[in-house]
């Protein structure tokens, strides 16, 4: 009986070994199956992710800032929506017209494009990029960026304007531009017959002031031409302005007229006279300069040389009115005629033409400008009638030194 029991024990041990192998085999099959499916899921997920990334990076967006009024040293900022392989971008940049540029990357998405040479004014540039790739090596379509340099400055306003007359002899010429005139520009200004001037710009370089070194000539037309030049592009020579202005005729004082009413003798005055009475008609007499002025509503109508009272018989100063008019009264006191007489005091003072004696002798015009009268105000031949026709009874007469 004992040998039979030993056989059973051996058979039982083999059965357990077979069962263990079966379990291990089953677990291995399950593990490989799970691993296969996990790998399959990972492959599918990776493919979907890669497809998604590829799809997104096929449409990389480019944003650009600073493309207007670009000058040497001013950055153009370029920003991509995805990370880029820098070398594939910067090695494939072409700028037309040709322009040397510096590229500075701030990240895989952004760089600045900086011109390192002067741009030709008022010019459109194009930067073309071909063969660029993203960080995932996704190739991009060729793209293009446009930028432009500033336009030429233009004259917005100028003084004196073209055709202006009566310009003062000490005026400055002022030119206002529509934009700043940068350092690379020069202005070629020609003013004929001006022989010399100094110039200066305001802080923003939008206004140029030209100051003649000497006063301008009187009653003279000045022709002015302005050309714009560029320090770095010698072929640029643009006409900006061409015009002319005329300086005013100096104020004059008339001694007498010829038979046609034209001045026979005149004298330049240093300045305009501002009347004391600015409404209606008035006469103003300056004893110091021996001059008589007539005004209408503050505007000078005429200026004439006179002769006032000599020492001891001075013409009175003050404000009076014309109280009487007479074409050719006789002075019983001095035995002479006083043509175009305009009385302004009750003592007999008046304004009249150079006196005449009965024999036909007339006071000489060479006495005009010299106080030689007996207190009246003497005018030359011609001016006396002009003043006589101008005034009315009651017209104010202001006399001062």
Main attributes?
401 residues; alpha+beta; Immunoglobulin-like; 4 domains; 9-stranded mixed β-sheet; 4-stranded antiparallel β-sheet; 3 helices; 27 strands
Write the layout of secondary structure elements.
Layout: H1 2-57, E1 62-65, E2 76-80, H2 86-90, E3 93-96, E4 101-105, E5 110-115, E6 124-129, E7 143-148, E8 155-159, E9 173-177, E10 185-192, E11 197-201, E12 207-212, E13 221-230, E14 237-246, E15 252-257, E16 263-268, E17 281-286, E18 291-296, E19 299-307, E20 318-321, E21 324-326, E22 330-331, E23 336-337, E24 341-343, E25 350-353, E26 377-379, H3 383-390, E27 396-400
Parallel strand pairs: 17-27, 25-26
Antiparallel strand pairs: 1-2, 2-5, 3-6, 4-5, 6-7, 8-9, 9-12, 10-13, 11-12, 13-14, 15-16, 17-18, 18-19, 19-26, 20-27, 21-24, 22-23, 24-25
Explain this structure to me?
- The chain has three helices and 27 strands.
- The chain is an alpha+beta fold and 401 residues long.
- The N and C termini lie far apart (172 Å).
- The longest helix is centred in the N-terminal third of the chain and has 56 residues, at 2-57.
- The protein has a nine-stranded mixed β-sheet, covered by helices on one side. Strands 1-2-5-4 form a four-stranded antiparallel β-sheet, with no helix packed on it.
- Which topology of the largest domain does CATH recognise? L,D-transpeptidase catalytic domain-like
Helical fraction: 10-25%
**Percent strand:** 35-45%
Biggest sheet: strands side by side, in what order? 20-27-17-18-19-26-25-24-21
Structural class estimated from helices and strands? alpha+beta
Mean pLDDT: 89
Radius of gyration: 51 Å
Would you identify the regions where 5 or more consecutive residues have pLDDT less than 50?
A: 5-10
Between the first and last Cα atoms, what is the distance in angstroms? 172 Å
**Mind telling me which CATH architecture of the largest domain this is?**
Beta Barrel
SSE order, one letter for each helix or strand: HEEHEEEEEEEEEEEEEEEEEEEEEEEEHE
Indicate the CATH class of the largest domain: Mainly Beta
Please tally the β strands and state the result: 27
The CATH H-level homologous superfamily of the largest domain? L,D-transpeptidase catalytic domain-like
């Amino acid at each position: 009986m004992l040998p039979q029991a030993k056989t059973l024990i051996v058979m039982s041990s083999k059965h357990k070994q077979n069962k263990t192998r079966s379990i291990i085999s089953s677990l291995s099959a399950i593990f490989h199956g799970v691993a296969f499916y996990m790998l399959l899921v990972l492959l599918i997920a990776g493919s979907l992710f890669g497809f998604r990334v590829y799809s997104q990076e096929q449409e990389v967006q480019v944003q650009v800032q600073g493309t207007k009024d670009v000058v040497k040293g001013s950055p153009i900022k370029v920003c991509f929506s995805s990370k880029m392989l820098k070398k594939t971008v910067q090695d494939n940049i072409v700028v037309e017209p040709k322009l040397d540029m510096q590229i500075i990357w701030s990240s895989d998405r952004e760089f600045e494009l900086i011109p390192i040479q002067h741009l030709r004014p008022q010019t459109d540039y194009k930067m073309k990029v071909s063969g660029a790739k993203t960080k995932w090596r996704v190739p991009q379509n060729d793209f293009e960026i446009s930028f432009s340099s500033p336009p030429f400055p233009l004259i917005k306003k100028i003084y004196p304007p073209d055709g202006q007359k009566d310009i003062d002899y000490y005026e400055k010429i002022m030119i206002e531009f529509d934009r700043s005139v940068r350092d690379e520009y020069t202005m070629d200004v020609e003013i004929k017959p001006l022989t010399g001037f100094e110039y200066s710009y305001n802080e923003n370089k939008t206004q140029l002031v030209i100051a003649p070194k000497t006063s301008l000539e009187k009653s003279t037309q000045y022709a002015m031409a302005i050309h714009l030049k560029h320090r770095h592009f010698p072929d640029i020579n643009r006409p900006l302005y061409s015009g002319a202005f005329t300086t005013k005729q100096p104020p004059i004082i008339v001694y007498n007229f010829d038979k046609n009413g034209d001045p026979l003798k005149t004298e330049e005055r240093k300045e305009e006279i501002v009347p004391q009475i600015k409404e209606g008609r008035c006469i103003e007499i300056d004893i110091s300069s021996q001059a008589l002025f007539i005004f209408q509503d503050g505007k000078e109508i005429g200026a004439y040389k006179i002769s006032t009272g000599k020492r001891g018989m001075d013409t009175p100063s003050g404000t009076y009115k014309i109280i009487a008019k007479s074409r050719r009264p006789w002075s019983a006191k001095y035995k002479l005629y006083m043509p175009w007489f305009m009385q302004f005091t009750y003592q007999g003072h008046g304004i009249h033409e150079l006196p005449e004696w009965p024999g036909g002798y007339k006071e000489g015009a060479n006495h005009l400008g010299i106080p030689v009268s007996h207190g009246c105000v003497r005018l030359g031949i011609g001016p006396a009638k002009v003043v006589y026709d101008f005034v009315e009874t009651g017209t104010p007469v202001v006399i001062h030194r």
